[in-house]
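Dear colleagues,

As part of the handover before I leave the project, I'm documenting each prediction I ran so the next person doesn't have to rerun anything. This entry is a single chain, and its sequence is reproduced below.
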Amino acid sequence: MKRLLLGSLSFLFLSQGITSVAQAQIQATRSTIPNYTSNLLQELTPFELVTMAYQGYFQEQGIPSYALLVSAHQVGRLRAETLVEAAIRTQKLSPQVLKDQGYLNAVEVQLRELIVR
C-alpha cells in the first residue's frame, strides 16, 4: 500500500512539474513570435464593401443603409471615397486603398448597381 501511495504521489509531482515546464515553454514561444495578424487588415472586394454598407455595417461612421444609402449616392452625398474612408476607420481596408483609383472606380460601379437592383 505504501508503494502504491508513494508511486501515486511521485507521479502527481512529476506530472505537475512537466505541466509547469510545458506552460512556461508555450509562454516563451508566444512572446517571441511576432503578432502579424494584428497588422494585417482584411481586404474587402468593392462588392463586399458596398454590400456591408447597404446592410448598415458603417452606420456608426455616418454611412446610411438600405434605401437611404442608394438615395445618398444618387443625390451626390455619398461617394466611393467616403465609403472607403469609413472602411479604413473601421480597419476593414488599409489606407493605401484610398489611393487606388481602380478600386474606387469599382466601388462607384457597385454603388451605381444598387440603383438598378
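Residues 2-33 form one domain. The two ends are 81 Å apart (CA to CA).

All the best with the project,
I.
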